[in-house]
Design goal:
Residues 1-25 form the signal peptide. Keywords: Signal. By secondary structure, this protein is mainly β. It has a single domain, classed as Neuraminidase (6 Propeller), CATH 2.120.10. The protein has 2 helices and 29 strands. The strands form 7 sheets. Strands 1, 20, 21, 22, 23 and 25 form a 6-stranded mixed sheet that branches. A hairpin with a 2-residue loop joins β27 (309-318) and β28 (321-322). The radius of gyration is 20 Å and the shape is globular. It starts with a helix and ends in a 7-residue tail after the last strand.
């Protein structure tokens, strides 16, 4: 009898712990922000692109490009709870001794690092821009002590014999897998240093015609795709609403898609399932949108997390001004 009581009690505790962990993820609609640090000024390139957060070493990495030369500047931002102690450094390529380098469009960044690493790996999605790394994924080795970087390796994402253009990349610490995007095709897998290829184990697509934003269904299929970020079972996807000329406007959204990486790999491993037959739909209970009245351009380029806080970078400005920045969403934290 005592054993039965113990088993029942254990089951109750387990269920309660599962319920507790499941309700930790905050839900709601969030549409205001606070500037974390400015990213404009003398010497800064003018077009913000990819961004990622090294959660193990309290560092943000961001890319800005010169739209005329397609050269990239790579920055590190030291994170701190005090705004006065946040430092922005322009990194130098140690091979060329220059702060400018061809990384294509540098549309998205992903980081893989352990706590205390002096050498950190940053993965870059160049798309089809530039010269050196068209339709490749670039792995950078960043020396955090010297504030320098160099190209360690370049990979291709090959599908049906064709190298694809990569516009999005993110890394899952828990699954130890990367997610990369080409157009609306997503691949889950890892890099093979011997073959120089990204070897995928599962594929999927996202639905954009029935996106739920603030409890309303919105067709965002014509919006401009930006970076991607995976965090705690959800894929975060920023998009920019186009203006009448097709460029970015003052409206940006972040869609959220539930994604179980290990389960998806398990489902597709060893099956004859057609590639990209799995389509994900947005969560109904979590969305983000910024509609800026102060700026004619508010283009969220990339998002990432640290300790439950959602960080994003943006091209922001109005006629005659440019005020690019890093920011956080007010009132939102995954663990609240």
């Amino acid at each position: 009898m005592k054993k039965i009581k113990y088993v029942v009690l254990t089951a109750i505790i387990f269920c309660c712990s599962m319920w507790s962990s499941s309700v930790q993820a905050q839900s709601g609609y969030f549409n205001t922000y606070t500037t974390y640090t400015g990213m404009s000024g003398s010497g800064f390139y003018t077009s913000m692109q990819g961004m990622c957060v090294d959660r193990n070493n309290n560092m943000i990495y961001a890319a800005k490009i010169n739209t005329s030369t397609q050269l990239t500047q790579l920055y590190s931002i030291k994170m701190n709870s005090s705004s006065s102690n946040r430092t922005v450094k322009l990194l130098k390529n140690s091979d060329t001794n220059s702060t400018s380098y061809d990384l294509g469009h540098a549309n998205d960044l992903a980081v893989k690092a352990q706590k205390g690493d002096e050498q950190v790996s940053i993965y870059v999605a160049p798309m089809t821009d530039g010269v050196k790394y068209v339709k490749k994924i670039v792995k950078l080795q960043v020396n955090t002590k010297k504030s320098t970087y160099k190209v360690a390796k370049a990979y291709v994402l090959q599908y049906q014999g064709t190298n694809l253009s990569v516009s999005g990349i993110t890394y899952s610490v828990g699954a130890d897998k990367f997610i990369v995007r080409s157009g609306n095709r997503f691949f889950i897998g890892d890099f093979n240093d011997q073959t120089g290829k990204f070897e995928y184990e599962a594929t999927f697509t996202l639905n954009y015609t029935k996106a739920v934003i603030h409890q309303s269904v919105v067709d965002v299929s014509k919006y401009i795709l930006q970076g991607i970020s995976f965090y705690q079972g959800t894929l975060y996807v920023p998009l920019s609403k186009p203006d009448p000329n097709g460029g970015a406007s003052n409206v940006s959204v972040i869609l959220t898609y539930p994604l179980n990486i290990n389960q998806m790999i398990k489902e597709q491993k060893g099956t004859t399932t057609k590639d990209f037959s799995k389509e994900l739909f947005t969560r109904n209970d979590l969305s983000f949108r910024i509609t800026s009245s102060a700026f004619t351009l508010f283009e969220i380029e990339a998002v990432d997390f640290d300790d439950g806080t959602l960080y994003f970078n943006t091209n922001r400005g109005k006629k005659g001004t440019q005020e690019d920045m890093m920011a956080t969403f007010n009132d939102y934290n995954y663990y609240k």
